[in-house]
Amino acid sequence: MDAVTLARQPGRVRRKRRPRAGRRGAWLLTAPALVVMVAVAGCPVLYGVWLSLQRYDLRFPDERGFVGLGNYAAVLSAPVFGPPWPPPRSSPSSRSAWSWPPGSASR
């Protein structure tokens, strides 16, 4: 059977697409809910980003100011964020740590 005979079968009902007005009405009904959800989720995130760009100390609330990405630079340049592995050696050794069978490199 090809597509033409399937389309002409008497028991087969073709679905009509919803009219554009129905789709537009659906968007108009859901738009206020979407705006509220974005505002409820987005405002705290944006406020957190704004606070992360400020120099703010709870001990001295009057002494605050805009530092930009300075807070991020200070955190990422801390030694605790160094690489978790030792630096590579300049020349590979003859005994590799990755050998088969396991343990053969230590013999």
Explain what this protein looks like in three dimensions.
It is a single chain. Helices cover 42% and strands 10% of the residues. A hairpin with a 2-residue loop joins β1 (54-57) and β2. It starts with a helix and ends in a 31-residue tail after the last helix. It has 3 helices and 2 strands. The chain has 107 residues and is mainly alpha-helical. 0% of the residues are buried. The chain has a two-stranded antiparallel sheet with strand order 1-2.
Give a brief outline of the structure.
The chain is 42% helix and 10% strand. The chain has 107 residues and is mainly α. The chain starts with a helix and ends in a 31-residue tail after the last helix.
Keywords:
single chain; about 110 residues; mainly alpha; two-stranded antiparallel sheet; 3 helices; 2 strands
What is the rounded distance between the termini? 71 Å
Q: Work out the number of β strands.
A: 2
DSSP strand (E) fraction?
5-15%
What is the 3D shape?
elongated
| SS class | mainly alpha
Question: SSE order, as H and E?
Answer: HHEEH
| Tally of contiguous helical segments | 3
Tell me roughly what share of residues is in helical segments. 40-55%
Spatial order of strands in the largest sheet: 1-2
The main sheet comes to: 2 strands, antiparallel
The gyration radius over C-alpha positions equals 32 Å
Low-pLDDT sequence parts: none
Average pLDDT, rounded to a whole number, is 77
Which helices and strands occur, and which strands form pairs?
Elements lengths: L2 H5 L12 H33 L1 E4 L2 E7 L3 H7 L31
